[in-house]
Write a structure and sequence with these properties.
alpha/beta; Rossmann fold; six-stranded mixed β-sheet; 14 helices; globular; binds pyridoxal-5'-phosphate
């Protein structure tokens, strides 16, 4: 744990200040009534790239720029890739995003529109990843990992600071959990401010790599399957350096949700909160609606749900609302 310090988080905050949104923390009357306690939503959906990943990407790239590094590469086609592209442009850096030939054109276009170079390589995400590492090894690019990177974690941790400053009596924080960069960061900052804050991670049942790893006591592989919470898919890396240990240390509990529940969270956000959010971001709301957050925890005081991103396929969203 000592590898990350609160000073790192404050440094991250100074670096990203003015480049990312200090997001709103909104009280939810409906969810508060359902939960029987004050419920707040931390709306990372309002970031310019539609997810919190801009915080970690901006901090990591700004730190590299301070060291004179100007070329970065990633293989993420999702929110991390988008954030890297956006942050690189803002900082005047060169970004390459490696994608397999199977990635749909709209995703390629989204990254190109943000000024990053798309490198099409191979026919799978693994082959795209290998190309990213080759560029890093041979062409002077620095690979920026989506979660297992201390500057990324420190960037996500600024969410924890913002929550504790806006609502010092926060009793628990519910965080979507995949690779654990978001969870580790928020939990680290919040518990440094108040060690009694309960930290609850939420993943989908289908392919919860961190949950399986916590159960095994070491990073393990899980099969990646399709899920409404697509931003929560993927492994934590068998060579995980930081987020596994941090999550193990800081998580009070981890909740797993089925697809029906996640869908209900997306629909509730739309109908009751007037929010368009992606599946990964809906898991906190879904866990609360399904009574999956411990009542004892809820009795302790206000609960904050981190609503992590808005980037849902709009056709899928429409379908979920119509079928509701
Ligand atoms: C990446 C992502 C997560 C999970 O973050 P990790 O740091 O990988 O745990 C949750 N929600 C959204 C919208 C994301 O893009």
């Amino acid at each position: 744990m000592p590898v990350l310090s609160l000073a790192d988080v404050y440094r991250a905050r100074r670096r990203i200040d003015g480049r990312v949104t200090h997001t709103p923390l909104l009280a939810s009357a409906t969810l508060s009534r359902i939960a029987g306690t004050d419920v707040y939503l931390k709306l990372e959906t309002t970031q310019p790239t539609g997810s919190f990943k801009l915080r970690g990407a901006t901090n990591a790239l700004a730190e590299l720029a301070e060291r004179g590094i100007r070329k970065v590469v990633t293989a993420s086609t999702g929110n991390h890739g988008r954030a890297i592209a956006y942050a690189a442009r803002a900082l005047g850096m060169e970004a390459a995003v490696c994608m397999s030939a199977l990635v749909p054109k709209n995703k390629v276009d989204a990254v190109t529109a943000l000024g990053a170079r798309v490198v099409v390589a191979g026919k799978s995400q693994d082959e795209a990843q290998a190309e990213a590492l080759r560029l890093a090894g041979e062409e002077g690019f620095v690979f920026v990992a989506p979660f297992d990177n201390l500057n990324v974690i420190a960037g996500q941790a600024t969410i924890g600071l913002e929550i504790m400053e806006a609502l010092p009596d926060t009793a628990s924080i519910v965080v979507p959990l995949s690779g654990g960069g978001l969870f580790s960061g928020v939990a680290f900052a919040a518990k440094r401010v108040n060690a009694n804050v309960a930290m609850i991670g939420v993943s989908m049942e289908r392919g919860a790599a961190m949950h399986a790893s916590l159960a095994a006591g070491r990073p393990v592989l899980v099969d990646e399957v399709e899920t409404l919470a697509d931003s929560l898919g993927g492994g934590i890396g068998l060579d995980n350096e930081h987020t596994f240990a941090l999550t193990q240390e800081l998580a009070d509990s981890v909740v797993l949700l089925d697809e029906v529940s996640i869908g209900r969270g997306i629909v509730h956000a739309y109908q009751e909160e007037r929010l368009v959010i992606e599946g990964a971001a809906a898991v906190g709301i879904a866990a609360l609606l399904d009574g999956r957050i411990d009542r004892v925890v809820l009795k302790n005081g206000p609960v904050v749900l981190v609503v992590s991103g808005a980037n849902i396929d709009i056709g899928l969203h429409r379908r979920l609302i119509q079928e509701a």
